[in-house]
């Protein structure tokens, strides 16, 4: 996508995406130090929410913590299922842009009624219903979004969790890296996407996103539905090599986020040669497949991969002739809490 092209910037979605670079650069990594101290004293944290407010923010933060070997016990679950769990002794953090998401309101209401004292929230607006139920609530700095699909808020939510867990672990490293991350994010977001690749994705009967269970490919699957109105599915890890090829067809596409080098030969054999479909890689290194090359951001690469995915989806949406801002059925507030219902 291009900053100075009306074809792109006429859409609030694109303007939200482009604004994300400033959101990254200006992020306050020290805003939740007191909450980090409280969570550290508990030692266990459940990160909850629905849809985009949970997938990338929670999963990316958990994957980083596990790679670093941090001792904090972490889990993520959607709020409806989390209501079935025994959360005594857990700090619970809920993300909801609107602060009115029914599932998280019901979870926090039940926990508060049972005297739970470690409830935290992050919303896009102050004085929300969710914040009123929290021990402490935080508010995003990114401002209101201009499209149904959440974008800049997702990145700020993920940065919030990353900074929070770094503070809990006593390894605060994010703040001095935000400028560089913002530049690499911008590069991936605005780099030209080859017309041949964009046309292949736009013309596919099904778009599969494959990659590690770190929230990136899964979130981009959801964004495919919202932005392009095309059917998509998430293939975790190497799942694409373990049976689904039986029902794949030549007119489908797999977009693989940073494929494992040790799996590339098998991907070629099973999917490209066996099924005959196109595999496109998003990676910071060369791969045997048509590759959208992005800057290497080390353990922050998930953010740059997300930017590249958004870039692809905008081009696909434009080729498909859809209104990027207004899906037919999807809503900004999914399952909204209404008092008395």
Structural class: alpha/beta
Please indicate the count of domains: 2
The largest β sheet comes out as: 5 strands, parallel
Q: Work out the strand percent.
A: 5-15%
**Might you state the CATH topology name of the largest domain?**
Rossmann fold
Description:
The protein has 341 residues and is an alpha/beta fold. It folds into two domains: 6-176, Rossmann fold (3-Layer(aba) Sandwich), CATH 3.40.50; 182-320, 3-Layer(aba) Sandwich (Rossmann fold), CATH 3.40.50.10490. The protein is built from 13 helices and ten strands. It has helices at 6-9, 12-25, 33-42, 55-68, 79-82, 102-113, 129-133, 152-169, 178-190, 195-202, 216-228, 264-275, 301-320, and strands at residues 44-49, 73-78, 91-95, 119-123, 136-139, 207-211, 232-236, 253-257, 278-283, 291-293. The strands form two sheets. Strands 2-1-3-4-5 form a five-stranded parallel beta sheet, with helices on both faces. The longest helix is centred in the C-terminal third of the chain and has 20 residues, at 301-320. The protein starts with 5 loop residues before the first helix and ends in a 21-residue tail after the last helix. The model has no long low-confidence stretch (mean pLDDT 94).
């Amino acid at each position: 996508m291009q900053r100075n092209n009306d074809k792109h910037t006429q859409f609030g979605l694109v303007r939200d995406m482009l604004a994300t670079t400033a959101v990254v650069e200006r992020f306050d990594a020290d805003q939740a130090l007191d909450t980090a101290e409280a969570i550290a004293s508990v030692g266990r944290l459940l990160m909850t929410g629905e849809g985009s407010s949970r997938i990338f923010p929670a999963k990316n933060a958990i994957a980083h913590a596990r790679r670093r070997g941090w001792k904090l016990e972490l889990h993520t679950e959607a709020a409806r299922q989390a209501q079935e769990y025994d959360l005594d002794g857990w700090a619970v953090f809920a993300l909801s842009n609107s602060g009115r998401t029914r599932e998280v309101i019901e979870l926090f209401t039940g926990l508060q009624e049972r005297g739970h004292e470690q409830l935290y929230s992050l919303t896009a607006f102050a004085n929300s219903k969710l914040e009123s139920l929290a021990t402490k609530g935080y508010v995003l700095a990114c401002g209101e979004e201009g499209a149904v699909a959440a974008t800049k808020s997702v990145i700020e939510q993920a940065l919030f969790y990353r900074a929070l867990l770094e503070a809990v672990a006593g390894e605060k490293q994010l703040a001095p890296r935000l400028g560089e991350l913002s530049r690499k994010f911008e590069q991936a977001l605005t780099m030209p996407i080859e017309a041949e690749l964009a046309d292949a994705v736009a013309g596919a009967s099904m778009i599969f996103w494959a990659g590690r269970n770190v929230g990136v490919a899964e979130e981009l699957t959801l964004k495919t539905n919202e932005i392009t109105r095309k059917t998509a599915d998430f293939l975790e890890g190497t799942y694409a090599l373990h049976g689904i090829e039986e029902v794949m067809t030549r007119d489908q596409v797999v977009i693989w986020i940073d494929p494992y080098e040790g799996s590339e030969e098998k991907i070629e054999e099973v999917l490209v040669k066996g099924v005959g479909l196109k595999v496109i890689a998003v990676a910071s290194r060369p791969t045997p497949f048509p590759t959208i090359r992005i800057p290497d951001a080390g353990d922050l690469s998930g953010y740059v991969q997300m930017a590249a995915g958004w870039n692809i989806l905008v081009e696909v949406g434009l080729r498909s002739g859809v209104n990027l801002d207004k899906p037919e059925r999807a809503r900004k507030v999914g399952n909204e809490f209404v008092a008395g219902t």
